[in-house]
Each structure stands twice: as structure tokens, then as C-alpha cells.
What does this fold into?
Amino acid sequence: MSDTQFGKGCHLHLIDGSAFIFRAYHALPPLTRKSDGLPIGAVSGFCNMLHKYVEANSGPDAPTHVAVIFDHSGKSFRNDLYDLYKANRPPAPEDLRPQFPLTRDATRAFNIACKEIEGFEADDIIATLAHQARDAGGRCTIISSDKDLMQLVGGGVEMLDAMKNKRIDSDGVVEKFGVGPDRVVDVQALAGDSVDNVPGAPGIGIKTAALLINEYGSLEALLDRAEEIKQPKRRQTLIEKRDQIELSKQLVQLDCNMDLDFTLDDLEVRDPEADVLLPFLADMELRTLSKRMADHMGAEAPVIAEAAPSAPSAEISAPVAVPFDAEKYECVRDAEALQGWIAQIRERGWVAVDTETTGLDEMVVDLVGISLCVTAGKACYIPLTHKVGNDDLFGGDGLAEGQMPLEEAVALLKPVLEDPAIIKIGQNMKYDAKILHRYGVQVAPIDDSMLMSYALHGGEHGHGMDALSERYLEHKPIPIKPLLGTGKSAITFDKVAIEDAVPYAAEDADITLRLWQQFKPKLHQRQVTTVYETLERPLVPVLAQMERNGIKVDRDTLSRMSNAFAQKMAGLEAEIHELAGQDFNVGSPKQLGEILFDKLELPGGKKGKTGAYATGADILEDLATEHALPALVLDWRQLSKLKSTYTDALQDHINAETGRVHTSYLQTGANTGRMASSDPNLQNIPIRTEEGRRIREAFVAEEGNVLLALDYSQIELRILAHMAGIDALKEAFAQGQDIHAMTASEMFDVPLAEMTPEIRRQAKAINFGVIYGISGFGLARNLRIPRKDAQGFIDRYFERFPGIRRYMDETVTFAKEHGYVETLFGRKIHTPDIASKGPRAGFAKRAAINAPIQGTAADVIRRAMIRMPDAIAHLPARMLLQVHDELLFEVPEAAVDETIATAKRVMETAATPAVQLDVKLVVDAGKGANWAEAH
DNA sequence: CCTGTCACG
DNA sequence: GACGTACGTGACAGGG
It folds into this structure.
């Protein structure tokens, strides 16, 4: 121990440990420890940074005291002030988490004090120590570039941006914030911070905040005299959001009076000790650095063995090319063998899982077997309920020999599948998790190779396992067809002989693991980790729950409607035949075309590429002026559609056990980030016509409950206004104007008061056209006007909103340059066709223009859905469906108002804090006993 | 299995 | 100057 007290002449260095870690993590490829695959990229970078720091600070201006300060995991006292503080922070990446404790070990190995305190952030400890140093008359340098620490500068305290090697003193703070260090918190309180989710004053950034603080002297003075501000919006914000601003100040104000259980004197600089540091570096297998440090300290470099032969060879980052060999897959038939696999999984920390079932409907099918894979090429299959081949001979459905009881296998695997420290990897894990859920297992945490591929390669190709395996593993998976057969003679997987099932099933797990190994590091390299971690992975359990919830559908209502439709159709059919002068199949476009254009000789018959006449709704509508028949066919078609697709087909989807309809969401369904719904598709239930809309009356709430429908109002146009930076549109949305009327007024010079529905309709079509990548032809067809008129509208539109054209041009240019476009949340949508020639190029261009808008809207509602379960956990509400810009809930009547308020808030704030839109998001809510009423 | 048609956002 | 065009989906029926 030193007997000198910290005081004048002393110089304290405080290193922001978290900043070091994240910089190291992001700057380096995801290295792993050779012997066992432990991720150590961040640790390695961290150690190098400490080493560089030590070397750089041995000169005349060397510090006398030093500490590395870390954030303690978990919540801080700021979360008690504001529960959403830092709520937007994605969880640390999987491969970084195990490295956090190692960076503490590294700090101690370098013989540097290492401090963190539960309930506080590193910044508070730094603040307290900096104040202590200053008060003792010493100097303090904070090694960080975090602007939150700038409030501490002054009186001997400075910051050092180690990256740029730039010192920041009071002048530097003024440069950054426009005010001195003593007023930094005031500016931060106003400007807020999207990274930490500090709300601040909406619409006020650092520039404006500094202006105001400099004018009024302090935040308190400003808020007290807010009435004097000239700008009406600014004045209103400051008055209305006073509480929020004061809360923000509390959040950004660092605690410089913490009680610490150590003193400055404990932080005295100590030289690293070779017998501590070198073994640590050797353990991390950092050869270069341990040699360098050994030289530096005049010690002998430790010997680091090449990959220990006994250790498992799998690594996350650099999978060795192991050939696929079905012979090597193991069939697990008893508890003892399964225990062996479980031990391997525990040792490894991750496992690829695949389930085999009797069908595809997760709500109904039974588990047949489970495959596991821990290392590329090493997988097993656990058959559980395979039946004996010729069971009908004996009249029973006896289990095949050599299978362990399903309950026993599930009981053994459950602790592993639910262990928070073990990652369960799947290809479309939602499916397997839903199956296992029915056997009492809540699988978590999960990773999903399909979702990784979606984040990485969206727009490039599909994300099914077969396609991914062929493309990325150069291996064609064993097809399932020969095992199950096709058509009427097809069998279910439980009838497949176990010896045939093993290579197929185990291989799926093997492929999944290999894909995961390949994709995981790519997420980081391609900068889509945040997309995967915040928009994909956390959505899986949410969708699974929604699908399990299902929605109640009233069979009798559908059945009655179906009969009514059938009657009407029969009547129409008779009339149609009468007019045609012969019987024919109205449902056959081919026959209809021949009747219309050959027999009746109506004009405008155009044959498509197959040689058949086109008979689409637009063509029939045009013909309706010529003849009575086409209009009847249109009516017939509408009824036919409603009957076959909805009133009939929906009944077949009512689950016998729950009496509800359970759709399945395909998270990777649309390239833009939207989802698709299938079996049945509940995202295309009719609404536009009165007759179709009545289908929604069959979607009902349980007794004592109501359905709530909450939908985003004009979300895509709002996003366009933000992305293209169109002030007129932003302003219109801010004032709650009718956006289509405003567009019409702007374009056609008609005052809003004199707006006619017709003019507004045209403007509305143009607004939608813009989102789709407008063309004269498309608009003309939609509005049924001459093409040159449509082109005139478009020209006029671009004249009035030049920013839109700029946005479109820039987006296409970006797509050509990068091969993808991006949403505001960083989702990449690849546009491989953008470089092609001919009509494909036109499609690709329009898709590229549309994708960021549609995709950003899709990302927003995903964020809302991900936050929703926690937000409504205290309510008896259930989230049932998503229809692109709408969420449907079921809730007891007593909780309706609170559910609406909560869900609305979550949806309207879903973009923040990752993205601060210039346009507010507005959600409309409706309720009712059925979906028609709720809308 | 492909095409045309039509339901939704 | 001709060509062919609105963006994103899924289900059903007819027809080869």
C-alpha cells in the first residue's frame, strides 16, 4: 500500500470499460478460441486496447492512478425514475455475452483496478471519482467519447477520445453542445437521447436546445419563462412537456456523490505481473499478445498448444468442412444414450433441434421423434412414437421396438431446452417450439437459421432448408418424398421405419447447425445483427402465442352465409346461361371468354400468352356497358370467391379442440419485412364490399369479451413524408389534415373548402401510386383515365413535391450501387434484378422504391408486437391477429378501455427510440362483438 | 403444376 | 420508338 494520499500532482485515469468492449467487439471479426470455440473477439480486442493504453501512458505525463469502470448488468436507479430508460437497447449479441466477465478478468490480469456497482451505471462511478479527484486538487482524464460524460469536464477534469486521440476540454464541450459543461445536462434534458431512450422535448435537438439555454441561462429559467417564447410550437412543447423534460434532466444528470467502498488511493497505478497476466493471455490463447507482453516484461512467453486434440472441434465462426455422412448419425434408443447427448449439449452451450411429427398443423399433430446436433456431422435421432410397419395385421397401432417412452425423453430434455444458458437452434424454430409447447416444454432461448437467412439475404432467394443447404453447404438434403410417398397413398412420419427416419431426421439437425455456424458471424459482418436481434428473433415467441390463441369463428354463421351464397349463385348462373343461349361453366375463364368474344362477339377480346381470352374484372367491367352478361358474371364471381375461399374453407379450419381458427404466420413471407398468413390466410378476409364484409361477422369474441381492432392510420404515407423529407406532408400530418384532400388541393389548386370527392379520389390514387413507384400507365389504369392525363398528374405532383422525385431517384441509385435498399431500422432488402434490362428492370425499380416504405411500416408494427406481451401482461387481453397495419385483440369488456390505451401507446411509440420519425404515428381503435363491428 | 382470378394491406 | 408496367401477399378453380 502506498502512503501518499491522492492530491495535488496526482493524475487519475478513468477508462469507460463498456465503450472499450463494444468498440473491440465491433471492430474485430468474431474470433473464437481454437480449443473450444469460445467467442473471444471482444476479449482479444479489449486486451489489445489495454496493452496499447499501458504503452501509451508510461511517459512523463503518466497517470498516478487508474481504473476501468464497467456497467453492472441489470437495471439502474434510472429505471425506477423511468421504466423505459434504455428500454430500446437490444440485448447484447449472443457471442458477446460470455465475454463480459472475461473483460473484467482481463482488467485484473493487467493489474488495473476494475470497478462496477449494482444499481448504478459506469458513468455515475466515473462522475463520483472525477469529483473526488478534482476536490482533492488532482487531475482526472476520462477515457471515453461518451457525450453523457461531458458534463464532468472542467476544473482539472478532461476527456480523452482514445480512438481519435483527441482531448476534450471545456472548449471541446462547447463545440459539441453549444454550452459549457455546467449546462450540458440542461441541453441534454431538452434534446433527449434516442440511444438511451431519454425522451427530452420532442422537436428540439441539440442546436435549438443550446440556443434556448444560452438565451435563458438555465433550463429552470427557460421552463419558468416558457410563455415568452415566440415560436408557437416550441412554446407549446416546453409548457406541455415540462414534466417529461424535468424527468429527462434527472435521467442525464450523473450521480457524483455515490458511496463507494474504495478510495482514490486504492486506484494507484501498478505494473502488470507476469505470473498473472501471461497465464491469462495463454488461457485466452492470444498468441501474439502474450508474446508481446512477455517481451515487454522480460519474461518467457507461455506455450500455447495448438487446438487440444481432445477438445470438441466445432466452432461458431469457422466451421471446418466436414462431409455429410448419414452412417454416422446415431439412433438414440434409451435414457443412457440420451444422457450422453445432454452432457455434450451442456458442455457446448448450444444445440440444433428438429422435431418430426405426424403432419404440418402444429396445433394438431403429434410428436414422432426429435433430432439433435451439437457439432457439424455429429447428430442423432430419438425415435419416440414410430409405429410397427404392418400394424393392421394385428389390428393395433403398436409402437415399434427400441424407442424410449416419449414422456421420459421429454422429461430428460426439458431442463436443457428451457435452460437460459443453452441456445436452441432451429430452422423455423416456431414450428418446433409450438410442438414442444404442447408437451409442456417452453423452449428458450432460441436461434433460427431461417430468420438469420432472412435478415442476411432477404430478396436474394428463399429461406427454406433445402435451398439454403444446397446454396450454402453445397449439399442436397435427403428428400422426404420417398419416405412418405405422395397423394392418396402418402403415410405420416410415424409410419416410416426407424432405420429410414434416422438419416433423414438427424441430417436436418446437422444442416441446421451448419447453417447457423455459417450465418451467425455473417450477421455481424453484414451489419444486420440488430435486425435479427430486435425484429426477428424476439418475434418468434410472440407469433407462437398469437397462433395458439387463435380466433373464435362461428360455424353456423358461415354455414348460413354459404347456403345463401349458393342460392344466389344458382339464380345468377341460370340467368347467365339464359343470356348466353347455352349452358357452360361460368367458373371457367376459358369457356367464358369463348362465349363473350366468339359467340356474342363482344368487342375488345384480347388473348393472353396461353391463347385464352382475358376475362379479368377490369375487362368485364368495361363490357358491362355492352351487354348484361358480364355484370352478372362479376356478381357470380364475387359470390363464388366468398363461398369457396371463405364461408366454406374457413369452416374446415376450425380446430376441433379449441373451436377457434389458428392461422400460421410466415415470418419470412414477404421480402419487405411483412409477414404472410396461411392455413388459413387471415390477412385477406373481405372488407371492401358490403357483402364480403359480412364474413367478418363470423369472427367473434368469446362470451363476455369484445374484439378490439387497432390500426395505423396512413402509416406508409407518414413514413414516406419522413423518409423523403416532404415538409408539406409532414405539416399536414402534424395538423391532422385529410392527407388526400391536402394533396388534391396542392395539385389542382382547389381550396380545401371546395374539395369534391372526385378530385380527392384522384389525389388518393396518386398518393398510393407514389408508394408503389408510380407510372403513367399504372395510374391511368387505376383511375381509368387516358394515359397522358395520368402522366400530366404525375408531372404536376412531382412539380409540387420535388422531394418525392428526389427520394425515388436516390433510392433507385442506392439500389443500383449496393444491390439492396434499406428500411429506417436497417433491414436490407436485396434487389438483384435492379441491374437487369427490359421489363424486369422496371419491376425491380418500383419494388426498390416501395420496399423501404412498406418495409419500414412492417418493422414498426413488428416492434409494437414484440413489446406488446409485456405491455399488456397486467391485463386479461390477448393479441390474436396481425394484418400488416392492424392488430386484433380479444379482451373482457371490463378491460377494454385500458387495453385500448395501452396497445395504442405501444403502437404509436413503436418506432422510438431507434428511430425518431418527423411525423407522429396515429392509431385508430374500434371494438365490437365481432370483427365487422370492431373495424 | 401452372395460370387466371380475386381477396387483403 | 416500341414495349409493358403500379407494391406486397395466399387460396381456389380450371385445365393440361
